[in-house]
Amino acid sequence: MGSKTLKGKDDPSRCSILVTGDELVELKRHAHKIPECPGLDRRIQRYYGQGRLKLSRDELDWLVAVLDAVLHNPKGYPCVQYDPFAVEYVPTTDERCVTCQRLYDRLNAESERLFEITRKQWIKVKKREKARERQKAKKAESDLPMAQIKAVFQKKKCPAVVCRMSGGYTIIHKDMLVSRIRQRGNGWEVLWRSHSSNKWKSIGELGGVVCDTVEEATEYILRDSMGLFWRFC
Known about the structure:
disordered N terminus, two-stranded antiparallel sheet, 43% helix, single chain, alpha+beta, 6-stranded antiparallel sheet
């Protein structure tokens, strides 16, 4: 996402939670094999409440889903003892069910906390994307004359390059300065490069060539009726 990696409790991709006592008994009772989380059941069976149980976001969500299904079993709360095929269903008021509900509430609260972090991160990403789009649109709008010049060159199959320099647009071909277009009032003036003085100059003695649009100025340069622009290329 273009930001620094989050660590610890602010990392929405993983979590660690302490499970001990009766809650750990109920967790191990229902931590059967989950195909989507290979090895999770074995890790839980080897966990004895010493230190925090580390889970990925997917593992946490699947445990929440499993416990939710267990707690809402229409037959009652299933208690698996030693024989996995011998299931005893007890009322939801049973202490084991109450303990499992308490564990479920803690895990679900952690899942919702991580979801909220993810949601806020997603909002930040979308805001940055919209800001970049606005900047891109603003830049494209400010560079509209350049896009128009390039469009004329592309239409005429001219390989010249356009660069924005010092408030104007310089046209370069084969490493040679061809011409320059700059805004002058409501129009666009075409300048030519004097190789004797090495400066940009207006064309003629009557105030230069000023076109109504930047496309007209570009086409004037391409026509080069006075032979000022392309003679050294």
